[in-house]
Structures
1.
Amino acid sequence: MMHPDESTLNDFADGELGPEAVAEVERHLAECPMCHSEVDEIQLLKASARALDPTAPSPDLWDGIEARIRASFRPPLHDLERARLVHARKGASPGPRERRWMRTPLLAAAAVVLISLSSGITYLATRGPVGSEGGAVALSNGGELPTDGAQFAASSAAQVAAAYDPTIRQLREVLESGRSELQPETLGVIEEALAIIDQAIRDATEALEADPGSAAALRALNGTYDSKVHLLRQAASLTRGT
Amino acid sequence: MSLAAVRSTPTVDDLVHQARLGDVTAFEALYRQLGDRVFGVCLRMADSREEAEEWAQDAWVKAWEKLESFRGDSAFSTWLHRLTVNTILDRRRSDGRRRARVESVADYRGVDQAQTSLAPPGVAHDLERAIATLPDGARTVFLLYDVEGYKHQEIAHRLGVAEGTVKAQLHRARKLLREALER
């Protein structure tokens, strides 16, 4: 055998060659110190690469991460607490206008979910048959669902709900057990936001049942459940004071 | 460590479970355990330590937001690692900047420049320096394949190139690294 080219030696070192090619290269290496040395160097380089150590970031990197995690939910509720304290000092509870203002940021976020989902559902309803959307659909929470016919729609909406229900139930329990840690106004905002998202889930479920086999509708339903879980998790983190 | 201490030490699975229920302290504990490896991936693929820290932060925030998508089919560290690589590649694509070759890693790694020959224990430092000087495409493929353990097909899919291109870049990277390490 002539000297294998560089690509072949690399493929040999990576275990990418078929049995016959491996045997041929091995026969050559047994008689060619130069090629044998080259394979050894490739193997040494691979081993060194695998052994590279993890590297520590700056000590304050976590502070930035934590701030971003908390900022995704906390600012509206900081506003709530601040407004409540201002009114408490004035000797009055927040009036209806103030309560609407305090609710606005969180409800706006939940409303965005509903509006974007509504637009998506309208789009889906005006599309033609979705014969081109064949194949399995990967759920963002893991697993796959087939895309064939009306039976798929009925089972898939139920399957999506079943996949998320345990997590939602657990988060609800944490939230319930920590209710006393939150101000009534805060709880009100959370429940209103959840009501908006639950409406979005109902609408997405109806859209999927109206358009069986639609991968886009399934993704939309999946997305609304993700939003609900995210909201509940953020709310649960507040009750822990963490 | 006493048996009582072992029993009371939460596992990664315990911490993930708590974090999924909103416990930021548990999530921080995950960060303390796995943060170095996440940062290491970012640092090797970034042009600067500052950029690597931005990417690492993005990866951890995304991990928090997507915790419910981790179903336990693989180890959490594996899931986190893949999420980190995806975050890096997404950031590089959205940044769309031409990446400059790094002349020396010492500026941002704090590594002394004493050793130049291929001899342990300096091999790791020399290899880190050499990796940083690779052309962008070759460096990315080498890190993903030889350091992070991705398959050719996975890398090709993630980068949007042919598998043959991935192999060519990998072989080129190894050749350049071997030449650099022999100097």
2.
Amino acid sequence: MAVVWPKKECSLADLAEGTRGRVVKVLADGFWRQRLLDLGFTTGAAVEVVKTGPMGDPVAYRLRGTIIALRKREAALIRVEC
Amino acid sequence: MGFHCRSRGNCTIQMPISPVGRPCRQLHQPAITIALAGNPNTGKSTVFNALTGLRQHTGNWAGKTVGLCHGSFDYKGHKFIVVDLPGTYSLRPISPEEELARDFLFSGQAEVTVVVVDATSLEHTLPLALQVMELTEKVVLCVNLVDEARKRGLAIDADTLSRELGIPVVATAARRGEGLAELQETIYEVATGKRKIKPYVVRYDREIESLAEKIIPFVPGSQENRSKARWQALRLLEGERGIYTDRDLEEFSQRFGGERTQEFSERMVCQVYKVAEYLTRKAIKKVRQVSFERDRWLDNILTSKWAGFPIMLLLLGAVFWITLIGANYPSEILAQLFSSLEEKLINLSQSWDLPDWFQGLAIQGVYRTTVWVVSVMLPPMAIFFPLFTFLEDLGYLPRVAFNLDGLFKLAGTHGKQALTMSMGFGCNAAGVIACRIIDSPRERLIAIITNVSIPEL
């Protein structure tokens, strides 16, 4: 019998600097859903939190080799495995 | 949708834009239309400018409010009309510009489509190319910014990429003119049929493919162009409306897709990215170990809580200071030069016995005002914009937007407005044009209107 560890999920906005996660789902609708999917935040994509801005917002993420900055309210729409 | 150029003789150029007042030259063969597509910031405009030089026009396409820029070049006896489509992340439009790009490609007016991708972020920019290959067969991939990639120690294997994709791949560094001759030759070969193409088409999972198969026979034109019909069927499954299909077909496909359109859409995007991932791994080789740590360390300082803002104020302040002080000297020289010229003009007009009112109008009026404007405005702009471009080439400007976004968000706008406002210090018109980099229409409007409050240096 295989033991399956439950995967912990959180939102991308909750990840601390220097940590990584894998995208599970994008919760948005309409414009932001399409934009985030088109940028590459698809299920299974590896994201790394690179740097938080000097005012706490936005945050720079590394996705598929490129750095993308997202505001907290947009990052909160992305569920990741942490 | 298209207009025929009324010329003498038998030349018919099918133009997407009304060729008002444009004379048509007598050609050996009719002109060939090329569409130029690509993500924003891939250097597409540079490629366009390099191909067409100064022979460009902007026009409206079939009633849309977004303008389309088109230009032309001649090659081996053929005239090529290049249409610069707006930068788009994918063929699922979320803005009028993206819709225009998709509609133009769908209309089939372009005989060849050149998709420009960024060599430094291939995985991000390839998906659009893969989507375009789903829609049309004659595609050429232009991998731009290879000079940037080289700086980062990356090498692009264009031959492998070409083999995997089944389409010609040209590596270019449009800024330096590298690869452009090869690009023109490739476009020519593909357009005239001298080069055979068999584009790779992304295959989705069994469920999506079988559903698409059920819809395809009902799509108008599926007998003539099956791949285009398949593209339409897939978009209908994703829940896209209004792409040249009638309501009956939409309702019919609702039966298959229905509630699951979002799920299908996600699966399709996922699959396209998987392919892009695979291709990037095969085509990009790390040739040199470029110091990654140094860039990281620099970024940490430039965007840090304590040093970020002071450094930014210092750098921008330095730019302003150099502009203000540096511009004084050339301004004076120009003013002296022009005023001595003015004296000569006055002497000339007197020796020709020109009436006083004419002298007043032409010399003290038109001439003097013009040279005042030139001697006051030209030196600061000639100093400010090169300095600003230097900062941009260093890659510093996105860090400025990144630092300031928090503040701008409090004001209800976007961090990129910091950049457009900075450009406004050089010239408000340039600042307003720069506002195109802001995505949200509301934030863009605010940036445009508030740019007025920025004084020109």
